[in-house]
């Protein structure tokens, strides 16, 4: 055998045949499905959580519809509804008896705020499916009567009267703060989240007014009254 024939035979053995080529199976790259699977699982979990929360809230509302706490809650709302109407009338009278311009403005502003708070309470009753009714509140009647007496016992146009008005107004504010704070927590306990939001809005406004009255007293009214 010549050297040329030997070389051609070697090349034929090393080259793959057509049949061997046809048997080669292409290897596919693995698809990256982990992210899509994760997203799908998360969506399913979120959907189940939402459904469970909805059922839980609905169950809580059904359970509390005739509970003793729910009855107390509604009666307490009727109580503060009466109180806000009485406070609005009181502010309309007292604001004109203040001497300090800053105090007058604060009382006028809170009169408008009180009107808004009454509207919020009416929304609360609507959310609960209850009629917006007033229940006589002996506590606020007593506080407002005391405020009137404090004002009458001070000299007209004096800063001492302004001191009395501020103290009286803060007694009212503290009653409202205690009431709205307690009612908001009961609403949360009963599962009435929208109701709680409305009550907390009223609470925030009462706290702001209380802070403003303290500021007015401490900055100048108390000092000016001490010089009379």
TrEMBL record:
Q: Which Pfam families match?
A: DUF892
- SUPFAM superfamilies per record: Ferritin-like
Q: Which domain of life is it from?
A: Bacteria
The segments labelled Disordered in the record are 1-65
InterPro entries annotated for this entry? DUF892_YciF-like (IPR010287), Ferritin-like (IPR012347), Ferritin-like_SF (IPR009078), YciF (IPR047114)
What parts of the sequence cross the membrane?
Answer: none
> Which positions are tagged coiled coil?
none
Which residue intervals are annotated with compositional bias (Basic and acidic residues) in the record? 1-12, 18-65
| Alphabetical list of PANTHER family matching this protein | PROTEIN YCIF
This protein is called Ferritin-like domain-containing protein
Which species is this UniProt entry from? Answer: Paenimyroides aestuarii
């Amino acid at each position: 055998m010549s050297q040329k024939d030997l070389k051609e035979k070697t090349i034929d053995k090393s080259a793959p045949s057509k049949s061997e080529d046809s048997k080669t199976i292409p290897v596919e790259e693995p698809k990256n499905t982990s992210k899509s699977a994760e997203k799908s699982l998360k969506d399913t979990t979120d959907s189940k959580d939402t459904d469970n929360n909805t059922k839980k809230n609905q169950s809580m509302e059904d359970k509390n519809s005739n509970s003793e706490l729910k009855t107390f809650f509604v009666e307490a709302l009727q109580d503060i509804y009466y109180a806000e109407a009485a406070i609005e009338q009181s502010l309309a009278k007292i604001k004109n008896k203040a001497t300090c311009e800053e105090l007058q403005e604060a009382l006028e502003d809170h009169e408008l705020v009180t009107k808004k708070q009454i509207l919020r309470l009416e929304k609360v009753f609507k959310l609960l499916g209850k009629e917006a009714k007033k229940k006589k509140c002996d506590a606020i009647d007593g506080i407002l009567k005391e405020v009137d007496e404090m004002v009458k016992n001070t000299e007209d146009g004096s800063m001492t009267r302004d001191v009395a008005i501020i103290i009286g107004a803060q007694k009212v504010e503290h009653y409202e703060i205690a009431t709205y704070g307690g009612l908001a927590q009961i609403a949360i306990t009963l599962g009435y989240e929208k109701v709680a939001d409305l009550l907390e809005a009223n609470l925030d406004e009462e706290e702001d007014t209380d802070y403003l009255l303290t500021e007015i007293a401490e900055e100048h009214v108390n000092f000016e009254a001490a010089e009379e």
